[in-house]
Amino acid sequence: MVFGKIHSVETMGMVDGPGIRVVVFLQGCALRCLFCHNPDTWETNSPSAEEVSPKDLVKKIVRYKPYFANDGGVTFSGGEPLLQPEFLLETLRRCREAGIHTCLDTAGCGKGSYEKILQYTDLILYDVKQITEENYRKMTGRGWEETKRFLQAVQKAGTPVWVRQVVVPGLTDGEAYMEALQTFIRTYVPNVQKVELLPYHLLGVHKYEVMGLPYRLKGVPAMDTKKTRMWQEKYFS
Questions:
Q1: Where are the domains of the chain?
Q2: Whose CB among 53, 87, 89, 210 lies 3.0–4.6 Å from 4's, allowing a Cys bridge?
């Protein structure tokens, strides 16, 4: 039997897809994004992670079905959910059998099996990290070949996509960047239904301090939410 490693579960999520959702944060991520506010999810074999079977996890999710039966469901986030493909696939399959809407919050940097996983995925929240290969590597510490492979699989599957972009002062903000982001999305991201700009915040900084990790965006202020809303309305409404 396959088991997965879970960081945590949020039972009344309101910002991770449509409706009220159970949000399952899987442990492990191959990227090291400069703006990451969940460094505690990076290591797959973290001793604090809970090991669980797909059957038991879906049993837990089903208990909350009355809260999201109309337009909600379950969102698998992280970390990076695609780093545990066998566990994710079996869990998604069981969710589909239980009539639960499924969503992946992902940067598209996993370990393959994308076509099989997408058969049981109703919606993707695709996290754009950067819009040029050079800047993507600077932002994440990796090249973008894997996420491109994932997007090709999404195109074949026809799975609906909501694009998300964290707006970081000096890195992913400004009129020129928003125009370039539009072009990037049209060029590389298929089946887009919606684009969401998310203002960079400082809520995760304390985790770096507790874990003894350097915070690489030290001194960068939180993003102005008014500017973020302005760009959202101007470019992506």
A1: 4-236
A2: 87
